[in-house]
Amino acid sequence: MSRVTRYILRQLFAPTLFITGALVGVVWLTQSLRFVDLIVNRGLSAGHFFYLTMLLLPGFLSLILPIALFCAVLFTYHRLSFDSEIVVLRAAGLSHRQLARPALALALGATIVTYGLTLYLTPLGFRTFKDQQFTIRSSYASVLLREGVFNTLVDGVTVYVRERKSGGELRGILVHDNRQPSKPVTVMAERGILTNTAEGPRFVMVNGNRQEVARDPDQLSLLYFDRYALDLGLIAETSGEHWREPGERYLPELLNPGSGLDDINNTDRMKAEAHKRLVSPLYCLAFTLIALAGILSGEFNRRGEWRRIMAGAAAAVAFQAVALGLMPLVGKTPALAPLMYLNIVVAIVGASWVLSGRGRPGDGRGLATASGGPA
Predict the structure, then answer these.
(1) How far apart are CA 44 and CA 142, in angstroms?
(2) Where do the structural domains in the chain lie, given as residue ranges?
(3) What share of the chain is helix, strand, coil (3-state, %, to 5)?
(4) Burial zone of 335 (CB within 10 Å; 0-12 exposed, 13-18 middle, 19+ buried)
(5) How far is it, in rounded angstroms, from Cα 101 to Cα 269?
(6) Nearest CA to 203 among 147, 158, 245, 241?
(7) Do residues 277 and 77 make contact, with C-beta atoms less than 8 angstroms apart?
(8) Which residues lie below 8 Å from residue 255, measured CB to CB, with a gap of 6+?
(9) For the segment 70-92, what is each residue's pLDDT rounded down to a tens digit?
(10) What is the pTM (predicted TM-score) of this model?
(11) DSSP for 29-66, written as a single string
């Protein structure tokens, strides 16, 4: 590695880290707002809060890295050009390809990292997040109950609480269990409390009634009680083996779904997710080449450079728009999956063509090829 390559690589590294950290922080903050109420008003520990939000971080990072690279390359090479360092390096005989080599090396490293994220860390984090979410629902159900709202503890079990008192006491309770549609059960109670016992979590209710409706024949069973305990462990048991969503699965599981009914009904979604995992890391290379094509091609001209930067930004937006538009289409029609790869190829080849000097990026026409993609 030449001294010039190492120098430019050092200049690129700091902005890439800074922009990645800033974007991750913004996305992490907006996503973590969903959990703030659980800490402030529901008693969820800060440790659980940070653990849950950190599990989602790999997924954010795989989306942010290509954008951070694009911004860092534009910023760094524009600064080098503004300080006339690019002019000096060109005068010393360095070609566009040699000047682009440090950014491409960084993009290649980011691509490898992103493959590690999409193929392993992201599904691992999302799978663990869903498992923790289920654990909180079964073991800390009181955390999730909101006053004056119909709360769904698990599918088919809805709880309404009129008022929450200090010490965890709940007033005005209604529980509707529709997990067996042929025999729905409704429990109403004056007050109650959610507690953990040696046998598991229980919902203990006082002064109420239990209503069960048998559909065939229509018959109502009514039971008044002074004290009634609903075993939430039984609810957890029925929901413990929940269906793994595409985002929770590793690549082999996506490419070879099981024979279960849910897997069969969602085969197209899983195939689309698999193609996304394979394609998205290549965005690092595509975005970097588009940025390089915008900033390096053409002669040195501060006024013209801004036009090239704007053309590069427009090309990147068009490329990302096509990529985002293809995802739902592939989920419905898997035969369109090759278009996702074609979009990447068009962006990389088009940007490389402009960077080689054969395009005319000065007026923004050359970069149009970098964002063509399938319409």
Answers:
(1) 10
(2) 3-138+247-371, 145-232
(3) 65, 15, 20
(4) exposed
(5) 38
(6) 158
(7) no
(8) 270, 271, 274
(9) 999 999 998 888 888 888 888 88
(10) 0.73
(11) HHHHHHHHHHHHTT---HHHHHHHHHHTHHHHHHHHHH
